[in-house]
Amino acid sequence: MHSFAIFAAVATLFSFFSAVLADTQGVANYSPDGPLINLINTSPTQTHVYKVEGNADNPPTAYGAGEGSLPAATVLPGETVKFHLGQGFIGAFTAKNGEGSRFEVNFRGDSPGEYKTWYNSDMQFGMSDTTLGPAHGDKQINGKESLAGEQDCLAKANSAWTTLDVGTQQELLDTGYFEGTTGEDGVLTSVHMDKQADDKVVDFFQNRAEFNAYVHSGSVMGKQTSKTGAAADRFSWSVKTKELTITGY
Q: Are 74 and 99 in contact (CB under 8 A)?
């Protein structure tokens, strides 16, 4: 074989293995049936970055055992990353590198006689068009729909906006967490969330628009009113699978 052909063959193999490695992250020595999160980026232009956190009591088999804040997970436009978490992982993935929707996962499967993966979405620190659910569309163990988070936060907010009276709409616009117009034909053009939001903002997202997420306390800060707390109790979800998918839109 000519040296050029050998070089080309080696380059092809290198490109192939680089591509394989590029879409696999997490622990190196993972079990084929171990905990897995598929990170899917549907955007053709935007790179999605997730802040990754692990519980301090994660076992040595888990990704970044006991290290707390871990290297971010990067998903290029149109890419799917298989993120292997290792046995016993508990932690969180937060979109927009910590400023979007936060997804908490618990792969300890601690229910006697029945494996469970626990998960939820938290929008206390920010919101983004991102969802989390079973990779194969399985229902929750209680039979309900399985997606946590929202595919289109602005559309979900707009679905409830015109149910408000003009005075309430204006009060929400005055908070700075909403941009748009008031009235029967009023339309929101922008929404956002952070931990400084007051109760009227939380109440709109959590109770009026019924976002599929903890919009206030989650399991992070523990601060809640009785109404938002009752709503948040709906979002500790579980499924009988070790494979979940986070999809960014």
A: no
Amino acid at 7: F
Cα–Cα distance measured from residue 30 to residue 25, given in angstroms and rounded to the nearest whole number: 10
Strand order in the sheet with 148-150: 24-26, 80-84, 36-41, 243-248, 130-134, 148-150
What pLDDT was estimated at residue 232? 57
Instruction: Give the number of C-alpha atoms closer than 13 A to the C-alpha of residue 179, restricted to the C-beta side.
Output: 4
pLDDT score, position 69: 80
Residue 62 · residue 89 · CB < 8 Å: yes
Q: What whole-number distance in Å separates Cα of residue 130 and Cα of residue 111?
A: 28
| Higher pLDDT among residues 174 and 142, named by residue | 174
Tens digits of residue pLDDT in 16-72? 333 333 488 999 888 888 999 999 999 999 999 999 999 999 999 999 887 778 899
pLDDT at 115: 81
For 54-70, give one letter per residue: b (16+ CB within 10 A) or e: bbeebeebbbbbebeee
In the chain, the amino acid numbered 239 is V
State the DSSP code for 233.
Answer: G
Mean pLDDT across the chain = 84
Q: In this structure, are residues 161 and 186 in contact, taking their beta carbons and an 8 Å threshold?
A: yes
How far apart CA 105 and CA 80 sit, in angstroms, is 19
Q: If we measure between CA atoms, which residue out of 241, 224, 249, 248 comes closest to residue 117?
A: 241
Per residue in 7-23, pLDDT tens? Answer: 333 333 333 333 333 48
